[in-house]
Design a protein that fits this description.
Keywords: Metal-binding, Zinc, Zinc-finger
GO molecular function: zinc ion binding
Pfam family, one: ZFYVE21_C
Protein name: Zinc finger FYVE domain-containing protein 21
Distance between the termini: 30 Å
Bound molecules: zinc ion
CATH topology of the largest domain: PH-domain like
Organism: Hydra vulgaris
CATH architecture of the largest domain: Roll
Strand order of the largest sheet: 8-9-10-11
Shape: elongated
Helix content: 10-25%
């Protein structure tokens, strides 16, 4: 396994052998998804005489195990679960410590439950009440793209990693699915050296409103997750 060659498999991606296992990474760093994170640095064996969780002393019999999510050293009781780590692009499930178990589950849920809502997309009202369809680009998982429903309309894409702030606009008189009356968002993002603002409003039509609110609440969660882990 360790000598697996780093060869090209699919366009834009390559299989890389790391100390933990095989990872499927973008050939070009600029193409990596908004969710991808680097492998953690591994704690050095000699610097950690006891388990980070239960303080059991390591001996010839009680061996050290590195958590692949945080890189810290644990005993086999405190680092025994193998889980998929999609944000680290591992091909196979990896050993995680008990603290990282919930982090890994949350990240699996990101891919299984949240990302599909964003790639499905929803309709909004943007500048001058133009109808736009907004979705996360399914191929790159990096950029919000817009399809203006009027022929002369255009909105530039927004890279998720370039979002600086996400301000929810609420109206207590609105009865939306979230119960807080979300009517839109102001998104501040970097475009080159410029800081720009994008205002997306939930459309009035009852049919589109639920999708739009769900999309925005999901986007907020996802942006927070990216902020927290960068
Ligand atoms: Zn332990
Ligand atoms: Zn861990």
């Amino acid at each position: 396994m360790a000598s697996y060659p780093s060869t090209l498999l699919t366009s834009g991606k390559k299989l890389v052998s790391s100390k933990s296992g095989l990872r499927m990474l973008c050939v070009n760093d600029a193409e990596k998804s908004a969710f991808e994170i680097n492998e953690p640095n591994w704690q050095v064996d000699c610097e950690q005489p006891v388990c980070n969780k239960c303080s059991k002393k390591f001996t010839f019999k009680i061996r050290r195990h590195h958590c692949r999510r945080c890189g810290k050293i644990f005993c086999s009781d405190c680092c025994k679960n193998k889980l998929a780590l999609p944000r680290l692009s591992f091909v196979d499930p990896q050993l995680v410590c008990t603290d990282c178990l919930h982090v890994a589950k949350k990240e699996i849920s990101l891919y299984e439950n949240l990302v599909p809502i964003l790639t499905k997309g929803a309709e909004f009202l943007a500048k001058e009440n133009q109808s736009v369809f907004c979705k996360l680009d399914v191929k790159s998982l990096r950029e919000l793209v817009f399809n203006c429903l009027s022929p002369d309309g255009y909105l530039e894409g927004v890279l998720l990693r370039e979002i600086e702030s996400f301000q929810c606009l609420t109206d207590p008189l609105e009865q939306n699915v979230d119960g807080v009356g979300l009517v839109g968002v102001n998104i501040k993002y970097k475009s080159g050296v410029e800081l720009k603002t994008l205002k997306l409003m939930v459309p009035n039509s009852i049919i589109n409103r639920k999708d739009a609110v769900t999309f925005l609440l999901t986007l907020q969660k996802v942006v927070r997750l990216i902020f927290d882990s960068s």
